[in-house]
Amino acid sequence: MHxxxxxxxxxxxxxxxxxxxxxxxxxxxxxxxxxxxxxxxxASEGAQAERNAASKxxxxxxxxxxxxxxxxxRALVASKKDEQAALEDAVKAEEARLTGLLEVLPxxxxxxxxxxxxEADNVEINRWGNPxxxxxxxxxxxxxxxxxxxxxxxxxxxxxxxxxxxMKGAMxxxxxxxAQFMLDTHITKHGLTETWVPVIVRDEAMYGTDKLPxxxxxxxxxxxxxxxxxxxxxxxxxTVAGDILSDADLPIRMTAHSQCFRSEAGSAGKxxxxxxxxHQFEKVEMxxxxxxxxxxxxxxxxxxxxxxxxxxLDLPYRTVVLCTGDMGFGARRTHDIxxxxxxxxxxxxxxxxSTTGDFQARRMNARFRRADGKPxxxxxxxxxxxxxxxxxxxxxxNYQQEDGSITIPAxxxxxxxxxxxxxxxxxxx
RNA sequence: GGAGGAGUGGCAGAGUGGUCGAAUGCGGCGGUCUUGAAAACCGUUGAGGGUUUACGCCCUCCGGGGGUUCGAAUCCCUCCUCCUCCGCCA
Length: 429
Hints:
Blueprint: H1 4-9, H2 11-20, H3 27-64, H4 67-102, E1 123-128, H5 145-148, E2 151-152, H6 153-159, E3 166-167, H7 170-188, E4 193-194, E5 200-201, H8 203-208, E6 227-228, H9 233-238, E7 244-246, E8 252-261, E9 280-290, H10 295-312, E10 317-321, E11 333-341, E12 346-355, H11 359-364, E13 367-369, E14 375-377, E15 379-387, H12 388-398, E16 406-407, E17 421-422
Parallel strand pairs: 4-8, 7-13
Antiparallel strand pairs: 1-10, 2-3, 5-6, 8-9, 9-15, 10-11, 11-12, 12-15, 13-14, 16-17
Helix pairs in contact: 3-4, 7-12
The chain binds one RNA strand through helix 3 and helix 4.
């Protein structure tokens, strides 16, 4: 949510930021409503003050036995009450209009974010590792025999439909190993606190993390109105909703491993083969809550945490800063990490780390207090560390062998009974 | 699922129709005392909004929403949350 005072104090900057995200100017319209809203607040409060004053005199008139005065004041209070009620309704209507406008406007990008229309305009800021030289033509993950032995899309379709998978044997073991390795690394090396959260949440949590009202169709809702989380960013970030934290509590750094659910509305026909884009997938998420002055450094730190996982797995990647046109709704700056997929002969997104500044904090009223200071909004950041399913794909494709087997990355072997290979028929050896 | 009970300031906890944004205690902050600290004593200490150059003034908030009343923390309705007991259950 945008800060109305900021818009008031610099409407041109607000519109300029919107323009960078491809939105038309809105400041004039917003400020007109704001002005009308404030005028109505003034009128409403004035009527309320008069009502309060008269109301105080009623008791005194009654006590002194002045029945005429008592009745006169009573009538006055009653009329002021009606007047005030009408004015207050007008205030609420204006506030609803204002909120309705603001809550669907995307966050303002930082100056450091490159302008651009789509992913073609993203700017690479880091590249690590060299894609392996294959003595054969590498194939996609679902075509690698050792992986194909454990991936069953037909059965998944029978149970649930398209964009689901049933995994068996070594594949699931590998996925579990990856998640464990990511969590353990974040906990022991990166200092994040492992957190376990609900995957079913209320409206408020979705709204507070800017998934509602605009992106409801991207997520699933239960019949009683709860939402299946599209990412554990939602429950993790919402842990601090409504709180006034002490500055000594910050930063808060959390990590969670959870199932994520996405309807993938609008991506029909995209990535339909394999398990790159699923309705249900696993993700290890990182969320940080910081003081405003610390969030830029925290984004760098978080990005490094995610990159560290890929480096430990010896998977080549590049990191890009998303341009204004490719950035998500709530982000001020986003780093995407793209892992090399030899089967697709390209880099594909495996992590996205964003700072929202105080955008989410305003929506969920998450604040902190410095010694002797007034409450201030925290900054919130979120990032994948990493998408487990996509990491599984990356391991399969990068570690595939000519005979159809898969070599297990060294750091994962201890999670897989010290096996070194997944054989062509899907056995650990 | 059934039956009860409860949600008040950072925390604990009074307040059951007006003088209550709210006693008291703890905690925090400032001060007196002290070489320093502790103790004791004194003072101070919620949030949001409107308005003002500013000092300040005004409005709202006692879990959320609605209602009764001249007047609501207090009465009524409703929702949410927590607790206790029973039932069921991973």
